[in-house]
Design goal:
With 201 residues, this protein is mostly helical. It contains nine helices and no strands.
Length: 201
């Protein structure tokens, strides 16, 4: 039997507590409250999918609280659900913010390694010396760095050539190769100065 739209808060809570017609009651909660709660998520850097995911968590938490007799009815169900919705979404945004900060830090580390070691590869006159140095890193590093810096190959082209899982794996490998190259250059002051002179002639 389809639950009518104007089911009261008391009736909704009563059904959730007793566990009777639970599926129909949950459908009624979705029908009555999803659109208004999803609006908050979508207007605060969220997508429709985010709104759906958050609402599912809201409903699960709400049912759990009702069945543990922790919902006292001091506010309306709508107000209570909105508060849960807001809390869950703000926590999710914080998590994403931390993840983004970690990702940006990682990307900056990669950029620095490329600036420190990559400019040695870019100089035409120093190319031969650098290729010899790169050769000492091993075949995989040599192929990646030569393809990227000398052949101007894209990550996709390198991926296809070396059969890695995805482009991110190739980027990570290139980053590690550059760090190795940077350490080798740093350990050889004479080579570093020679390359520096060649690159600035």
């Amino acid at each position: 039997m389809e639950v009518r739209k104007n089911l009261s808060d008391k009736e909704l809570v009563g059904r959730l507590q007793s566990g009777s017609q639970i599926n129909e009651t949950v459908k009624a909660i979705y029908r009555n409250y999803f659109e208004s709660l999803s609006w908050y998520v979508m207007n605060n850097n969220g997508s429709r999918q985010d709104a759906e995911d958050v609402f599912q968590e809201v409903v699960v938490n709400f049912i759990d609280l009702v069945q543990k007799d922790k919902f006292r009815g001091e506010s309306t169900i709508k107000t209570f659900l909105f508060s849960l919705n807001r809390h869950i979404w703000l926590n999710e945004l914080k998590k994403r913010g931390r993840a983004l900060a970690r990702e940006e830090k990682y990307e900056k580390g990669q950029e620095k390694a490329e600036m420190d070691a990559g400019h040695f590869i870019a100089g035409r006159e120093a190319r031969e010396q650098v290729v010899n140095l790169v050769g000492q890193l091993g075949d995989t590093c040599r192929r990646i760095l030569v393809m990227f810096y000398y052949n101007n190959s894209s990550m996709k082209e390198i991926l296809e050539s070396l059969n890695y899982e995805n482009e991110q794996v190739v980027r990570n490998k290139k980053y590690k190769c550059l760090k190795q190259l940077e350490q080798m250059i740093a350990a050889n002051p004479g080579l570093k100065q020679t390359l520096k002179n060649l690159l600035h002639e």
